[in-house]
Amino acid sequence: MDTDLEAAAIGSDVPPGPFQVAVHSVFRGALNLQPGNGGGLVTVIDDPALDHPRSIRLGAAQDFTTLGLLPLAAGRFDPEGILLERPGGPPLRIGCRKAVRPRPRPLPAIRRLGASWQAAAALLCARQAQAGADLRLDHLLGPDHPQGLLGQRLASAALALGRAVGDGARDPAREAAATLVGLGGGLTPSGDDFLCGFLAAARCRPDPGRLPLRAALEREILDRVGDTNDISATLLRCAAEGKVGRALDRLARAIQAGRGPGPALAVLCAFGHSSGMDAATGFLYGLGVW
Questions:
Q1: What is the mean pLDDT of the chain?
Q2: pTM attached to this predicted model
């Protein structure tokens, strides 16, 4: 088909189609599509740093708010591309025939927490202190306590989750995770972002004795995704299946290889107002807990 835009990459978790879609939400750097058969959102992006198992990345920069798309607009996805209706004009066509679909790969096993983990933790604490973040790693690792009410609630739930996992206590771990789902403001609440990182850490610290606990925690979060918004629910579903975006994957591989984590952490922390920092907090804290 004739195309207006061309996709360069399709995430491994995007169904091959064909299926109907509807426009869910439009932002400058992302276009969220809701598949007609339910399930998580599919997000069209233009930045390789944002690559995710549920994303379709364009080959060139694009401001999605300029495309004349409205929420609930109908469309269709198939291996040839995406067709989206636009009011008062021709449909938008995004070609997908030439897009690369990378093979999924599991998160790396991190056997030891050495200097790379310590450097990442120090860098993250410094960033969060400068940004005045509600959720901060130093409030989970040290004696300091958050001042704001939201920070206190987030830290309390995160610490409860860490203690429960450390003790192998299944029910308290599930209760703490349920408290974190949907907790916080923003496009993706801080509690959700923290859980995405925490679940990724569990995959990176394989321990056969903890598999039942991890599975119970993942099931609890999957059961609770209705308590948050559609965007966060999609990310939580992926995280519960061991699927994360490129930025978090690169941080994990830097720590596993003992490399300097600065570049990977900087890319992750640049996401959203605090989303990347919150995910990094869950990941680095979770590596120690699991």
A1: 95
A2: 0.96
